[in-house]
Amino acid sequence: MANEEDDPIIQEIDVFLARSLLEKLYLFQYPIRPASMTYDDVTHLSAKIKPKQQKVELEMAIDTLNPNYCRSKGEQIALNVDGTCTDETSTYSSKLMDKQTFCSSQAASNVSRYAAAVYKKGELHLTPLHGILQLRPSFTYLDKADAKHREREAANEGGDSSQDEAEDDVKQITVRFSRPETEQARQRRVQSYEFLQKRQAEEHWVHLHYYGLKDSRSEHERQYLFSQGHGLAENTELIKSPSEYLMMLMPPSVEEENDKPMAPSNVLSMAQLRTLPLADQIKILMKNVKVMPFANLMSLLGSGTDSTAVLRCVQQVALLVQGNWVVKSDVLYPKDTSSPYSGVPAEVLCRGRDFVMWKFTQDRWVVRKEVAAVTKLCPEDVKDFLEHMSVARINKGWEFMLPYDEDFVKKHPDIVQRQQMLWMGIQAKLEKVYNLLKDHLTPKKQETQSAHPLVVSGEQRVNMAKAKVQQNYGQLEKEHQRQKAELKSNDTAAKTDVPSIRIKEEPVGAEEPMDTSVFEGLNNGLVNGLHSTEGPTDPVNGHLPGGCLDRVAQELKAFVSSTFRKQFVLTLSELKRLFNLHLASLPPGHTLFSGISDKMLQDMVLDTGCRQILVPFPPQTAASPDELKVYALWEAGDIYDQHRQVLLEIFSRNYRVRRNVIQSQLSQECGEDLNKQEVDRVLKDCCVSYGGMWYLKGTVLS
C-alpha cells in the first residue's frame, strides 16, 4: 500500500483500436545510418513486394557527391558488373554505382503482439501490425559480375580452339526416364528446400509507388492510423471485465501435449478402449490380437455387449477360419502402404496373406516353402503372414495357433455359411491370380493333427451318416404323402406342384447343385469350421420344396437381369462368383439358400434374354469349362443393341480382334460411320483390351 501511495496516477489515457489498415500495415527496419541523414532525404527509385511471402525489395539512390563516397571504387564496381558496353540491361547506366538494393526478411514470425501507436490530444490509437520486415543490403550485383567474368573466360577458351576441334568434341549422353512418383516421394519433394525456393521464385513481383513523408497522399494515408469511430461498438475488443483482462495478461499455462494416437495401438488401455464406438473397439482388438475366438472377444468387450451387434461388426474386419476370427488383410495393410521388408505394395501383400488364410481353411498345417512358391513374396513377408495366425512346429510346418471352435460353429450356422460364400469369392480370385493347380487346391493329409474332428474315424462317419439318413427318411416320406394327397384334391394345383415332388429321372450329374461350399476334400468333413453333416438341408432330388419355386425363380431372375445389365458379358465362372458374393450379402434364411444348380442358373440366364456366345478359344487351353462358357445380354433396350449384336457376332468367329477391324465391321453392318465415342461405348460394354488386341470380357487367358 505504501508503494502505491508513493506512485500516484498522473494521467489516464483513452486507448482506441484502429481497423482501417488492418492486415495492411508493415513495419520496415532499415540499416543504421548517420544521424545527419534520414531516410526521408534518400531518393527511392523503385519498390516491389511479393505479398504471399511478405518479401520487399527497395532500390535507393546513393549520394555520389557526398565527400565520404569513393568514386573510384564505384566506377570499378560498375565496370565489373556491366562491362565496357552499356545498354538497357545494364545495372548502372551512369557507369558509376549510384544506387543500392535492399531486400527484406521477416524479423518475427508472430507479430500479433505488436502494434503501431499514434498519440494525439490525450488519445492513444493502436493499429495491429501485419508484418515486421528487416531491410538489408542485397549484393546480387556481385553474382552478376561473376557471371560476366565466367562468360568472358569461356569466350576466350572457345576462341583458341578451331571449328574442327569443336566438331570432334562429341560427348556421349545417357537418356533416363523417370519412374512414377510415389506419394511419399512427392511429399518429400514438396517439403524440400529446392522446391520451396522454386515456389517462391514463381511468385510475381508487385511494383509499388513510394510517397515521401510530406506528400499529400502520405498525409491522407496517415489519417487511417486513427480510429474512425470513438463509439463503444467500434472498440469492443478493449472492453473487458477485470477477470477477462487478467486472463489476457496472464493466460493459463498450456501443457504441450505429445502426439497421442487416436486409439490405442501397441498397448491397449481398456478404459480408453471402451469409450470408443463398438466397431472401433472390435477393429482395434482384432488388429492387435490378429486371431481370436468369439468368446474371448466378447469377454474383452465387457458385460452387457450385444452379441448380435458384435457379430455384425466383427464380420467387417475379420474372416472366419476354423471357427475363429482372423483379422482381414486390408486392415493390417491399408491402401498406399508397402512392405517394410521388400517394399511391395499393400495390394500384393493382401493377396499373399489371403492365400495363407485360405490354406488354413482347408488344413491345420501350412508349409512355408509352398506359400513362398505360389505368392512369389520374400521369405520375410511370408514369415510375417504365418506368425500372425500360426505356430511353427519342427519338421512339420506351421500349425494354426487356435483349436477348432466347434461351439461357435454349432451356435451360429448362418454366420458360418455366409463366411463360406466369402471364402469362395476369395478362392476364385486367388485361382485367377496365382493359377492354382489341383495340388494347391487339394489339402494334404497330415499324420498328426490337433483339430477336433480327428477323433471321429471313417467308419464312425459312415454310421453317423446312415443314422441321419434313416432319421430324415420318415419325415421326407410323410411330407411326400401329404403333398400327394393335396395334389389329388386339386387338379389345377397338381399341374403346378407335380414338378416339385417328382422323382428326378435324369442322371445325377445333369443337375448337380452348384458348388457353393469350400472343397469337399477337407479333413473329416471340415468346411471352414463347418461339418458337412451340419450344413443346411439340401433340396429333395435337386428340386425345391413346393411353394418356394416361384419365389426362388423371381429372386434368381432379378439377380441375373441386374447383373447382365451392368456387365453385358460374363463367363459362367464369373457369374457364379458374383452369385456367391450376392448370397453372402443376403440375410440368413433367404430363399436363395435353398440350393441353386448350375443348370438352373444357366437356364435363367437364357430366359432373361441372354445368349451363349461360342467363342473360338485357342486349342489346348488350360481354362476350366466354366470359363469357356460365355453369355451376353442380346437386347438391353437402348440404341446400342444393334452395335453390340454385330460385335458379338464378330467374336463368335474370332477369339481376339483388332480395333480397326471392329470399327470397320460396325460401320459396314450398321450402315453408318460411327464416331470414336460410340465405338468406345460399345467396346467398354462388352470387351477388354490386352496387348493391343480386344477380347470379350473374361476370355483373356493368362
From TrEMBL:
Residues 146-155, 476-489 have a biased composition (Basic and acidic residues). Residues 146-169, 473-496 are annotated as: Disordered. It comes from the Eukaryota. Residues 444-701 form the DNA-directed RNA polymerase III subunit RPC5 C-terminal domain. Pfam families: RPC5, RPC5_C. One of its GO terms (biological process) is tRNA transcription by RNA polymerase III. One of its GO terms (cellular component) is RNA polymerase III complex. PANTHER family: DNA-DIRECTED RNA POLYMERASE III SUBUNIT RPC5, DNA-DIRECTED RNA POLYMERASES III 80 KDA POLYPEPTIDE RNA POLYMERASE III SUBUNIT 5. This is RPC5 polymerase. It comes from Campylorhamphus procurvoides. The lineage of its organism: Eukaryota, Metazoa, Chordata, Craniata, Vertebrata.
